[in-house]
TrEMBL record:
SUPFAM superfamilies: Lesion bypass DNA polymerase (Y-family), little finger domain (SSF100879). One of its GO terms (biological process) is DNA repair. Pfam families: IMS_C. It comes from Rhizobium leguminosarum. GO terms for molecular function: damaged DNA binding; DNA-directed DNA polymerase activity. Residues 17-82 form the DNA polymerase Y-family little finger domain. This is DNA polymerase Y-family little finger domain-containing protein. InterPro entries: DNA_pol_Y-fam_lit_finger_sf, DNA_pol_Y-fam_little_finger.
Length: 84
């Protein structure tokens, strides 16, 4: 896993998946792909909130809730060239 200083890169095309396991051992998975640039953790949290809204109020108690990110594409600022 790589860690970057906040603001050093941005992430685009994130696929966020929400896994929910209920008390009766049934489970569902829902996902959303975000094609726009995400600059902060708050941007990712917004998408998770949208996925969670669809599930509440839960029909049974929730015993496990998982969020995963995949298909991450880094968008680095272009490197400047020195004229030599």
């Amino acid at each position: 896993m790589r860690y970057y200083h906040p603001g050093s890169i941005s992430i685009s095309r994130v696929n966020q998946t929400l896994n929910v396991k209920y008390a009766d051992f049934t489970q569902i998975t829902t996902s959303k792909t975000v094609p726009t640039v995400l600059l902060a953790i708050a941007d990712l949290e917004e998408v998770v909130d949208l996925l969670l809204v669809q599930l509440f109020p839960p029909r049974n108690g929730i015993r496990l809730l998982g969020v995963s990110l995949s298909s991450l594409e880094e968008r680095r600022p272009p490197q400047l060239r020195l004229a030599l």
